[in-house]
Amino acid sequence: MRDPVVLVHGLSVELAPGLSPVRGVDLSIARGECLGLVGESGSGKSMLALALLRLLPRGARLGGRVIFHGQDIAALPLEAMPALRGRRIGMIFQEPMAALNPLMRVGAQIAEPLRHHLGLSARAAAQRAEELLAQVGIPDPARRAAAWPHELSGGMRQRVTIAIALSCGPDLLIADEPTTALDATIQAQVVALLRRLKDELGLAMLLITHDLGVVAELADRVAVMYGGRIAEVAPAEAFFDRPLHPYARGLMAATAALDASPGARLASVPGVVPGLRDLPAGCAFHPRCAEARAECAARHPPEVTRPDGRRVACWALAEAVP
Amino acid sequence: MRRIAASLPLVLLGLLAGVAALAPWIAPLDPLSQNVFLREEGPSAEHWLGTDELGRDVFSRLLYGARISLTVGVLAPLIAAAVGIWLGMAAGFLGGRVDRAVVRLTDMLMAFDPLLLGVLVVAVLGPNLFNLAVAIAAALTPQFIRLARAQTLAVRQETYIDAATVAGRTAPAIMRLHVLPNIAGPLLVMGTLWIATAIRLEASLSFIGLGAQAPAPSWGNMVRESIADIFGSPLPAICAGIAITLTILCFNLVGERLRDRLDPSAGRRP
Amino acid sequence: MTRLVARRLGGALVTAFAVVTLVFVAMRLLPGDPVLAMLGDSASAADIAAARSALGLDRPLLDQYLGFLGGLLHGDLGNSLINRTSVLEQLLRALPYTLMLTAAAELVGLSLGIPLGVLAAVHQGGAADQMSRGFALAGLAVPDFYVGVILLLVFGLSLGWFPLIGGGETLPAMLHSLVLPALALGLVKAASMTRLTRAAMLDVLQRDFVRTALAKGIPTATVLRRHALRNAMLPILTQSSQSIIATLGGSIAIELVFSRPGVGKLLIGAVVTRDYVTIQGGLVVLAVLVVLVNLLTDLAYAAADPRVRVT
After folding, report:
1. Kind of pairing, strands A311-312 and A304-305?
2. Torsions phi, psi of B235, nearest 5?
3. Is the CB of residue B184 less than 8 Å from the CB of residue B94?
4. Can you tell me the distance from the alpha carbon of A232 to that of A243, in angstroms, rounded to the nearest whole number?
5. CA A150/CA B259 separation, integer angstroms
6. Which range, A156-165, C48-57, C238-247, has the best average confidence (pLDDT)?
7. How close is the nearest chain B Cα to the Cα of C46, in Å?
8. How far is CA C257 from CA A22, B115, C90, in A?
9. Is residue C245 within 8 Å of residue B111, measured between CB atoms?
10. Mean pLDDT of chain B, nearest integer
């Protein structure tokens, strides 16, 4: 691909001995591209996001490399990270209702990184904050900037967090379940906003979600995560047209199709997502997989890059590749 | 090693209780007998911790002081519990006007610092040991009411309460048979901690002069009498103060361990 | 906001009225005859009746109550039964010492307790945390008057750095004699403050907006101060009125240790001598103080938390 904004190589996170939510992940995101990282809770995707910003809990260990702007930020000392956070990499989280400091006015919270990273004066920062509010589609930005967070609805608060994340013009935006806590109509608005911003600003975006619908609307490429590892990576259209990995296929089948008959039962993937302490040996998905074979329990399948550019980690599929 | 340390407070308290109970038999000397010729002596073979300003044996007074502190320390919370738990349960269970009245009463009582309240009650009733316990109980009662009420409100939602009501049980019976056993845990925990508070209040009130009256060997008294003559020997004051501190500390530690055991959710953040 | 203030003020006035009435009722419930206590057992019936009439104790209760209220509004709290001086005068002379001690002790408690609590929370499980826990345990176990005694013995008696008695007449003397008592009361206060701050900070540090602030690249120290501590202060503020009242109460014993001429000493003296008028006056003043403290902390909380102002 073109020169990626961020290149993740073999990323692993160990919270405690034997407890690894991320176990060797390779990713890359290009400028203006949105990579949708899909997985259920417990797949390790949120931990991955936190790892990129080095916001892991105390005592957690990070392995692998994260190349950003030519630097391996996984190897940087922790004190060097605040300079990057909010400035070159922005992040928005799942719960907009709790994401803002209840004792600070909205405008001030947007102005905070502007003043810190860009050294703007109070007035300039306040002005820019208002502009940002307008940019994320908040009506009457001047009045809203003086408002307290509890005076705003969930959708508006999420827009504010987006404004905060983008305030200093980052190259990468990480969005961890940005729409999950919002009503359906508001979800659509936020998704549309993110798409517009990505196109206008040429952002590289890592969209983390379990909602395939949101991925379909926003992502250019899709990566599926299970048990701390990547199961499949593919361009969005190709993925939705024909997912390859058995888990991905299961996910798609479980999503109700528009043309399914109303009374049809939703297909589901049998079994449950294993807890961190109960991860099976070999391929983490094999106990639930209809196509499991002997090797799946023994060794984790390597990621294979296919001729069409897609990557899959599955023994069953490896054979199919000529 | 850690387990020894953990059970230490309980062991010390047991020791204290034993000392308090057996004081008349194990105290080497009479705590009240004065000896003008031996005033404010340092430690000696006969007087292990020396004598106080009236020639009395400090060690024996300490032992007898344990009786006062423990008696009042346990009695006061018991009285407060007897009154407060029922009021709190009634307020939480019956709601409405009863609840509002109880809450208002509690707020008013809690507006006064416990020590001040104690002073007040002793002023009204006169200074003797029993009134002292009542005074401290007065300070602790609103706490019991509050806790019992909050716990009752939580328990009230449970289905077994509804079941009992439907089965025709009267309110007092439900409170006694169903609510009380289920709120007992936190009450026991706080009760232990409030024993520590009670002991502290007793010491403070005695120090002020409104507690056990002289010549009673209350630890608070000992501190006061010792520093009344500031240039004399401070040993009685120091010893008594250490006794008070250790006792309160032990009750606090035991209470906290009880809390960790019986009510783990409360102890999430120690 | 002004509506809120007005409403709280009104509520405070009502509470003050209720508490003052409570004091009146409590005083009339005193068993034993104040007159008898004053005159002694050998007084004749006529003397007793005369004294009672002079004190207004033979009038119907309602009359007494109205007289009491009327006196209050005129700032007349009666005269001491013992030395016949105006109770109000005595209280006004004693009040500054008590207020200074309470304020100074609170200051010590806050400036020591809050930083320690923050440290303990930030380094949870570490050495700082263990030490602050030990400090909190010790502080909660030691009676404040005992700390006062120790400080007095060491710094007052042995080292002679501070006066042993009195509150001082001139400002420098007042401040000088404030140090040990404020420390005694304040250290104990600091112990509970540490605990409280630690718990509040631990709670706040888990919240999402702290993570947002960190993700913005704001330096940790600033996040702790501007985002975490500011929010942690709210539960602390809620407790602060109880805390100040406790300090006020604790000052009684400390005043005795250091022989400070404050309200506590006055009150205890009145209790011992059965000087009911002074006791009543002292209680009224303390009760009004309590209501005032509650009012101020209420308003402070409303000023601090914009979410409260909606109601």
Report:
1. antiparallel
2. -55, -45
3. no
4. 8
5. 36
6. A156-165
7. 26
8. 63, 15, 20
9. yes
10. 82
Phi and psi of A13, rounded to 5°? -130, 130
Beta bridge partner(s), residue B155: none
Q: Which residues of B210-247 are buried (b: 16+ CB within 10 A; e: fewer)?
A: bbbeeebbbbbbbbbbbbeebebbbbbbbbbbebbbbb
Instruction: Write down the ipTM of this complex.
Output: 0.86
Helix, strand, or coil (residue A207): strand
* SS3 label, residue B25: helix
Burial code of C159-183, b = ≥16 C-beta within 10 A, e = fewer? eeebbeeebbeeeeebeebbbbbbb
Angle, helix C144-151 to helix B180-208, in steps of 10 degrees? 30
Of the ranges A220-234, B1-15, C150-164, C294-308, which one carries the lowest mean pLDDT score? Answer: B1-15
With beta carbons less than 8 A apart as the criterion, state whether C282 and C270 touch.
yes
Predicted local confidence at residue B124, as pLDDT: 74
Between B2-26 and B235-262, two packed helices, what is the crossing angle to 10 degrees? 130
- Whether A74 has a pLDDT exceeding 80, the answer reads yes
Q: Is the pLDDT of residue C272 over 90?
A: no
In this predicted structure, the answer to whether residue C93 has a pLDDT above a threshold of 60 is yes
The tokens of B57 are what? 């044996």
Name the phi and psi angles at C275, rounded to 5: -85, 85
* Min Cα–Cα distance to chain A from C104, Å: 28
DSSP A279: P
pLDDT digits (tens, 9 = 90+) for C107-125: 999 999 999 999 999 988 8
Q: DSSP states of B92-128 as a string?
A: HHH-HHHHHHHHHHHHHHHTS-HHHHHHHHHHHH-SS
| B 103-122 residues inside an 8 A Cβ radius of C | 108, 110-116, 119-120, 122
Q: pLDDT grade, residue A52 (50/70/90)?
A: very high
Computed over every residue of chain A, the mean pLDDT equals 87
What is residue A317's predicted lDDT score, i.e. its pLDDT? 79
Torsional sign, CA C298, C304, C309, C311: negative
Tell me what percent of chain A is helix, strand and coil, each rounded to the nearest 5: 35, 20, 40
Report CB contact under 8 Å: A101, C231.
yes
Q: Which of C208, C217, C305 sits opposite A99 (nearest CB)?
A: C208
Distance CA B116, CA C26 (A): 14
CA distances from A99 to A86, A148, A152, A290, B199 (A): 15, 13, 12, 41, 46
Instruction: State the pLDDT at residue C89.
Output: 86
pLDDT at B268: 35
Name the residue facing C305 among A83, A84, A103 (closest C-beta). A103
What CA–CA distance (Å, rounded) separates C167 from C183? Answer: 15
Q: How far does the CA of residue C149 sit from the closest CA of chain B (Å)?
A: 8
C302 C-beta neighbours (distance < 10 Å), count: 17
Q: What is the rounded distance in angstroms from the CA atom of residue C22 to the CA atom of residue C64? A: 14
Hey, are the CB atoms on C217 and A91 less than 8 Å from each other? Answer: no
Cα gap B195→A130, rounded to integer Å: 58
**CB of A229 closer than 8 Å to CB of A25:** yes
Residue B192, both tokens? 């232990």
Predicted pLDDT of residue A113? 94
Nearest CA to A207 among A196, A193, A216, A219?
A219
Test C143 with B248 for CB contact under 8 angstroms. yes
**Cis bond upstream, residue B215 (ω within 30):** yes
Q: What is the DSSP letter of A226?
A: E
Residue of C nearest to A168 (CA): C216
What pLDDT is recorded for position B270? Answer: 30
Each residue's pLDDT tens digit, A96-137: 999 999 999 999 999 999 999 999 999 999 999 999 999 999
